[in-house]
Amino acid sequence: MAPARADGTEFIFQGAGRVAIGQWTWQFHRQRCFCRRINRYPMRPTLVTTDQKGNWRVSRRLLPYLWNYRVPIAIALVCLVVARVSNVAVPLVLKEIVDRLEMPDRAFLVVPLSLLIGYGVFRFSAILFNELRNAVFGRVGVKIIHRISMTVFKHLHQLPLRFHLDRKMGALSRDLERGNMAVTNFLRMIVFNIVPVLIEIVMVLGILWRQLDFRFVAVTLVVIAIYCVFTFSVTRWRTRFRVQMNASDSAANTRVLDSLINYETVKVFGNETLEHQHYHRSLQDWTEASLKNNLSLSYLNTGQGLVVATGLTLLMILAAQGVSDGELTLGQFVMINAFLIQLYIPLNILGSVYRDLNHSLVDMERMFDLLDEDPEILEQDNATPLVLTNAEVRFRRVSFAYRPGYPVLQDIDFTIPGGGTLAVVGPSGAGKTTLSRLLFRFYDPDHGNISIDGQDIRSVTLDSLRGPMGMVPQDTVLFNETVGYNIGYGKPGAGIDEVIQVARIAQIHDFIEQHPQGYDVLVGERGLKLSGGEKQRVAIARVALKGARILVFDEATSSLDSRSEKAIQKALENVSQDCTTLVIAHRLSTVINADEIIVLDKGRIVERGNHEALGNRGGLYAQMWKIQQQEDDRAW
User: Fold this and answer.
1) CA torsion sign, 151 to 157 to 162 to 163?
2) What class does CATH assign to 382-468+551-557+580-636?
């Protein structure tokens, strides 16, 4: 089944279950569900899969990280084996003690003191080596999580702007959080639960085979097999509820973040009730999935208990019959009982471990999927550092489209001489901001090329390309840190004197000093404590501190009043002195002194020249100038 959608999305389903997308719910059969979307970086619904083999392949991604710590892992495994051997030895010693106590002479000295001491030593050894294993592997686990987290974090910064624009950060952060926890749980369950139980099962079966007969081994194997098959099959069935819980949890978390980040918008429109309703619906989906998960867990636990109780009863009947017939000693009866209890208790835990393990694999898959995303913007193998001389920027017949068939820029050709200023104006949606994104190489043009001092920007390293460039964006987003930190971000390690100096240039120093905390005042999430104009002043100070040779001002004064605009315009001129400057503007009053102005309309250059020449031409620029002059007159 492949239902097509108007937005170019195609979904292909194979498997058993159901997936909800928006208001639509698709039913599908068998074992797997795949989602495919034509867009390169889609906002994909959660992948639903109950295919055990597919999930376990995710665990292979951990092998390179484990190999880096092979020595401490080997030490931990040795401790694990010693602990299991000590644990298995306890019932054997207990058997010998009971058999000796069964002798006619029940004097204390008949029971060798060494057996009693050995019993205690083995008990303590099992605990001691378990704790040693925990200590050694616990340290390894923390380091592995650190490495994986850093790898994913670095990869996310390598992904193109297209990826981040198409993703919801709330859901992404939850995927990372759950993925890191899943790796921790996965390693802990493998080393602390599964491997020890498997070792103990093999050792117990070997002892039962050697000391008793094949009936005890056969019954134990059959019970273990039935238990494992039942546990694995039910757990795979239950996986879908975990996936639905994750999807609902991410949706609810995203709703909370979006609502709180847009707190003022919610208040202005009085839509608190609407936001509550959205969040309520997200929580309802999570509640339903959670209830199904809990009910299926009860079903699984009941079935496991029935299998274990049946197997234990059968084995005890066989043992009791053996004692009655004189084939087994009372010590062997006690040993069998101790072995079975010792075996089935961790085996019961193994059932819950497998459930958690499967959940961890699902969560890990979501995180490792991020590492599989194509960075798209990559350095060439022979990339060389940019050699900056005059800082001349050249766009040569550049065309670009975010989506095939919908061109944003077409045949753009211009040159900004070193130290010169070029302004780009035009209606909204003409493609002005896209020019800056191409210059910073957030995207690569579909046709044509961009060069700096004659060097194609695709042939140089990204660090050397972006190092000498700075931008004051239209929508300034700040870190939830201090004002001083946000200004100093332009030059990490800069002293407070340098920060104050550029703050004066951006004319924000006096505002900062009015606050009791000064440069240590927090700006809030995304800078919400500051006005639009204040945020742009911070951005101007930040780029001034960087000392870039190539500057891009993208609507850098759009949030300022007319008086502040003139003051900031002077500050921008000071910052851009002797710099190659690309000015993207909506207000034409900010570009009248540019060396050249190009007018974009529908992705094409329709006019070019200086302010005076374009004004006299009577074209689109002249019309825009006339309209803005009338608006300014009405504003006064």
Assistant:
1) positive
2) alpha beta
